[in-house]
């Protein structure tokens, strides 16, 4: 925990989460083999609420916007499948939120791309995992390589033409059978994204049936015996029902800390259960929390290399290019 931002966050109860991870959508138009939701029954459990209610989203945006919080639009399905996603993200920006949209990139049109860019969505991340159509067919089943490239290049072209402040990045899971170096080179150099995120292959523990042997980079980021998990001090997960979980790892909603239909996000963030989680982590007793003791991915969290660093580095790359300096060197980003 070397940087000042991390030290500022490291208190029993920070005033408000820096990041709100929103699972807006459970259906997906892809069938990626490394996806936790394709290796679990969680989507079936949300058939009654496949999309986040507009009212829940707006409540989050209104409260989070007052604090300039980052809404990370991610989760169980493809966010662009939500029937009102563009309208809602534009609304969240108008409320003062920062927005990080993680998408497979298959459903962008010129119209919705322009709307998101004009609104200044802070970062649009294309989850790609491949540098060629054959590999893409394996790791991103049911999606089309040509459509991905067309949509990504159009997004970049519109962004540059209208001088939007949005960062556009790509990401890949570092898994067996993928040349992650080649994937990064292609998306940085051939497509021209602002940054590339190398993600660990995560198993999500008892939530899924994923096999850790598929990871091409199992090296840990932190020592769970000497460092608390940063997630519990900086972010929450909210599902389509408005249920709040104490950690984004808890995709199965087993350790619920609140309900946005009954409480504000601030009230939930400061509730006794959440405070107790933080106290135990500060005392290096996080392994005594059932949720945390079963987390195989705790060691892949990082206080220094995270989503905010990805955003800062993407902005730095754009600044360098604008000044005629070319693309930035490869670096190790974690989010």
What does this structure look like?
The chain has 13 helices and 9 strands. It has 335 residues and is of the alpha/beta class. It has a 9-stranded mixed beta sheet. Helix 4 links the parallel strand 2 and strand 3. The protein is globular and about 50 Å long. The N terminus is likely disordered.
Features:
single chain, 335 residues, alpha/beta, nine-stranded mixed β-sheet, 13 helices, 9 strands, 36% helix, globular, disordered N terminus
Regarding quaternary structure, what we see is single chain
Biggest beta sheet attributes: 9 strands, mixed
List SSEs in N-to-C order.
HEHHEHEHEHHEHEHEEEHHHH
Count of individual helical segments: 13
Strand order of the largest sheet: 6-5-4-3-2-1-7-8-9
Specify the structural class: alpha/beta
State the shape. globular
Number of strands: 9
β-strand percent reads 5-15%
Helix content: 25-40%
Mean pLDDT figure: 92
Topology:
Blueprint: H1 4-9, E1 19-23, H2 42-45, H3 54-65, E2 70-74, H4 85-94, E3 98-103, H5 110-119, E4 123-127, H6 133-139, H7 145-162, E5 167-174, H8 180-191, E6 195-200, H9 231-234, E7 235-238, E8 243-245, E9 256-259, H10 265-269, H11 272-282, H12 290-293, H13 307-322
Parallel strand pairs: 1-2, 1-7, 2-3, 3-4, 4-5, 5-6
Antiparallel strand pairs: 7-8, 8-9
